[in-house]
Amino acid sequence: MAGVLLNNVVKRFGDFEIIHGASLDIADGEFVVFVGPSGCGKSTLLRMIAGLEDISGGEIAIGGKTVNDVEPADRGIAMVFQSYALYPHMSVEQNLSFGLRMNGNPKADTDRRVKKAAEILHITDLMARRPRQLSGGQRQRVAIGRAIVREPQVFLFDEPLSNLDAELRVQMRVEISRLHKELGTTMIYVTHDQIEAMTLADRIVVLRGGHVEQIGRPLDLYSDPDNQFVAGFVGSPKMNFITARVLERGASGVTVELAGGTRLTQPLNGPAPEPGSKVVVGVRPEHFGHAGKGDADLSVTIDVVEHLGGTSFLYASTAAGDDIVIQRDAAEVSDAPEITVSIRKSYLFDDKGRRLR
Amino acid sequence: MRYQNATAYRFLAPYLLIFSIFWLWPIIDSFLISFQATRTVPWRFSPTFNWGRLIGDPAFFNALKNTLLILVIQVPVMITLAIVMAVLLNSPLLKARGLFRFAFFAPVVVGEVAYSAVFRLMFNLDYGIINKLLNSVGLPSIDWFSNVTPAMAVIMIAVTWRWAGYNAIILLAGLQSIPQDVYEAATLDRVSKLKQFIYITLPLLKPIIVFCAVLSIIGTMQLFTEPFLITERGGPGGGTETLGLLLYRQGFRSLNFGYASAIAYTMAGLAIAISLVQLWLTRDPK
């Protein structure tokens, strides 16, 4: 087992820079998830760790050894691909053992490793089948099995669940989590699905446009985001953003006025923006309360109500036209077309999306 | 539904009519003609006249031997060469890929008479470039068209030159359909490029290779142009006469249509039989 260190890693395709100096220290045995929208560079970063992409600058170290110029096979990693990348003409057993056989690994040891991986992933009954005779979930297990038999120091997963249906995705998510506990190996996992990131990760790395936006534990990112992008990306339904204007800075913090006249005072330790400047107030759906029971009240018009059983989501708009989502217990939802809610907890962002703390 | 079918068949009727007259009927008729003694006037039905002659005809067995010899040597060499060319064309290191693809495919587009004339000139005893090259490295000139073995070699070289690029382009399409991440997975498994080629590329390319081989077998069974034009009607002394050439000689020089039809059906039967054996040998295990 080994940790992974990225030090100011840069990737350029010609003059076009894709990754702009990513730095990250992944501890031995840690489960780290790279998350971000399409094109943010998360898969490229993973492929650079694997050695499938050259790095244009910086340093990558695995287990304390710089691997910038080390061949992919010698980095002690195993990778699970989005498309599984199984050898279509080989049986499951051959898929699992191929790499070991090609490298002259003793047959007894190969058989032992293949058997162990098959048992861990419950695919012992599928060993004679070809990939085309397997379901998506079974193929995914074989792909993970092929990574396990290598007994790597670091597992790399490149959006491994994105080709599965919703139910199977949840099931495989739990299995990967169980696998991490069982093997205790360092795992780096790429996804665009923030729910996968939140449920699997010890730490999440949020990427956007080749920049690392924030690194932290899932609940830390959720409750203490560094910027508006992270605040909006982590959490489902996403955080509501309501435009506001700075009124004044007082002893208890900064007071802002939301479009529609609602005033809200936020404690602030750092410098405050100039009075009159534009800011954004972020409120998570579950941080709206009943009128009069929070920091400020807000009148909204209800557009649509979604009942999910115990919880309901109210899709509403403010007087200024900001669309917001409110989470409520199903029993508390009325048919009233207009309601007043309180803001119990909120976040403040400047006009560049930076968090004001 | 029946009415709709009738409408569809009315639209198809012109094509089906032309197809029946110019394609289906000649095939059936030539089969019937193969049972006719066509050296007599009028023709008479005699099943053994042509088929009986075929079994004991030294010219037929000479042509069959020549055809099979070309098939056994030239087809494997050409397919191997085509695979190598396809792999090179697929290499990311290759510059001017479009130019090479065109160059490899160009021989198919060149007129048969023109390319045959060029090959005759290249292999000419006195002023051909091939003999000049042999002389330049100290080897004696070869009289390519007066001896059977060199004449056969010229035919094989010519056919390979003409069709290797064509097969390479088909194989290239097969190569490009193999997902890149399979190779990446093998790279991570520390599988060398050579082993990746042997254990991944070739097995995944097998259906395309078989397709090319079957096409080549059919083409070689019908081989006509090269022995007709390059070695001057199967020369020297019938040494490069193929089944296609024998068919032509019997049908259009001697006007013995019955025997020519029997030869044609034998060629088709052999092509089907060899292709089926090929497909059976290379079938996927269940």
Describe this structure in words.
- The complex is a heterodimer of chains A (357) and B (286).
- Chain A is α+β, with helices and mostly antiparallel strands and 357 residues long.
- Chain A folds into 2 domains: 4-233, Rossmann fold; 240-356, Nucleic acid-binding proteins (OB fold (Dihydrolipoamide Acetyltransferase, E2P)).
- Chain A has helices at 42-50, 92-102, 107-121, 136-149, 166-183, 194-200, 218-223, 228-233; strands spanning 4-13, 16-26, 31-35, 57-62, 65-66, 77-80, 154-158, 186-191, 203-208, 211-216, 240-250, 253-258, 263-266, 278-283, 288-290, 296-307, 311-318, 323-329, 338-343, 347-349, 355-356.
- In chain A, strands 6-7-8-3-9-10 form a 6-stranded mixed beta sheet, with helices on both faces. In chain A, strands 13-12-11-14-20-21 form a 6-stranded antiparallel beta sheet.
- In chain A, helix 2 packs antiparallel against helix 3 (107-121) and helix 2 packs parallel to helix 4.
- Chain A is elongated.
- Chain B is an all-alpha fold.
- Chain B has a single domain, classed as MetI-like (MetI-like fold), CATH 1.10.3720.10.
- Chain B is 75% helix and 1% strand.
- In chain B, strands 1-2 form a two-stranded antiparallel sheet.
- In chain B, helix 1 (2-33) crosses helix 12 (257-281), helix 7 (148-176) crosses helix 9 (193-221) and helix 9 (193-221) packs antiparallel against helix 12.
- Chain B starts with a helix and ends in a 5-residue tail after the last helix.
- Chain A: Residues 4-234 form the ABC transporter domain.
- Chain A: Its main location: membrane.
- Chain A: It is a peripheral membrane protein.
- Chain A: It is found in: Cell inner membrane.
Helices of chain B, by number, come to 12
CATH architecture of chain B: Orthogonal Bundle
CATH class of chain B, named: Mainly Alpha
Order of helices and strands of chain B: HEEHHHHHHHHHHH
How is the largest sheet of chain A built, in terms of strand order? Answer: 6-7-8-3-9-10
Oligomer: heterodimer
Question: How many DSSP H or I helices of chain A?
Answer: 8
Task: Give the distance, in angstroms, between the N- and C-terminal Cα atoms of chain A.
Answer: 39 Å
Keywords (chain A): ATP-binding, Cell inner membrane, Cell membrane, Membrane, Nucleotide-binding, Transport
Protein name (chain A): Lactose/L-arabinose transport system ATP-binding protein
Main location (chain A): membrane
Family (chain A): Belongs to the ABC transporter superfamily.
